[in-house]
Amino acid sequence: MLARRNLLAFLAMLAVAWPAAAQVALAPSAGQPLTLIVPFAPGGPADAMARLLAGPMGASLGQTIVVDNRSGAGGTIGVAAGARAKPDGQTVVLASTGALAVLPHMMARMPYDPARDLAPVSLVVEVPQVLVVSAQNKAASLSDLMALARQQPDGLTYGSAGIGSSMHMAGELLKLRGGLKLTHIPYRGAAPALTELIGGQVNMVLADIPSVVGHVRGGTLRALAITAETRSKTLPDVPTTAEAGLPGVISDTLYAVFAPAGTPPERIAVLHKAVAAALADANVRRGLEDQGAQILGGTPETLAARLRAEQAKWGDVVRTSGVKME
């Protein structure tokens, strides 16, 4: 009888202690920083966003945040590192459209499955693209440019930062929705593509707003349309593609925070609140908007739904274009 009472007492003690033990397991280790993986090199737009978020996120979590740049292969190296990390809530990755929704349809072998290997935390921002031409180009509008494309036997050319880049996919989307004949000219980055555009070697470029806004304001490039649902605060006088007469050309670079799959839901909720707190910070909002970003936020479920929509959309574009990468 005594042994049975002792056993029952022990089991009751476990029942009381288990929730506390679970909380300890979910809490960050004493003094352990949270790692925020950025799948691009230091100094770029993604790196700048991560460093804007890091301070307020760290304050919310009570942790130091270390930004870990893992660049290469269109962002897939960094995202793969995030997917393979221990699912204890101590590592997150700031992933973008290419590595989430474009390259999985183009690469024969992907090191991860975004839907299977990543746990959504929060949307962060979307950065629309802007269709630009040289100041010497005759086209004063998107309609003018499309008319020029149809007048040329071989159509027009557009430059990009490389095969599979957001610039490339935006061009393919424009080609598909406009029924245009366009030839893709890939470069080793956005900067050389824009240099060639200014010099007249290519006819157009679709690039993220931050990379072209200086050229547009300086008069070396002319902006014809924003590939977004609404106008940009950065270039408020530039119409959307729908306003310019071509609906359905919505192309932006989406940035979102993910944790490794298997991260406990309670820790995901804590991380989500930290991102939300950062996006509510006035300095963070100002810094993101200065980069031409449109601030999103939202629940993990909202991010999961957006990821499915982006994968379906860009899967169709990739299949239609026939572009593949080894």
Summarize the model shown.
With 326 residues, the protein is α/β, with parallel strands linked by helices. It has 12 helices and 10 strands. The radius of gyration is 23 Å and the shape is globular.
Question: How are the SSEs ordered, and which strands pair?
Answer:
Blueprint: H1 2-26, E1 34-38, H2 45-61, E2 65-69, H3 76-84, E3 91-96, H4 97-106, H5 114-117, E4 118-134, H6 142-151, E5 156-160, H7 166-178, E6 182-186, H8 190-198, E7 204-208, H9 209-218, E8 221-226, E9 252-260, H10 265-280, H11 282-290, E10 294-295, H12 300-321
Parallel strand pairs: 1-2, 1-3, 5-6, 5-7
Antiparallel strand pairs: 3-9, 4-7, 4-8, 4-9, 4-10
Description of the molecule:
With 326 residues, the protein is an alpha/beta fold. The chain has two domains: 33-126 and 253-321, Bordetella uptake gene, domain 1 (D-Maltodextrin-Binding Protein, domain 2); 128-226, 3-Layer(aba) Sandwich (D-Maltodextrin-Binding Protein, domain 2). It has twelve helices and ten strands. Strands 1, 2, 3, 4, 5, 6, 7, 8, 9 and 10 form a ten-stranded mixed beta sheet that branches. Strand 1 (34-38), helix 2 and strand 2 form a beta-alpha-beta unit. Helix 2 (45-61) crosses helix 10 (265-280), helix 2 runs antiparallel to helix 11 and helix 4 runs parallel beside helix 12 (300-321). It is globular and about 65 Å long. Mean pLDDT is 89; it is low at 1-27.
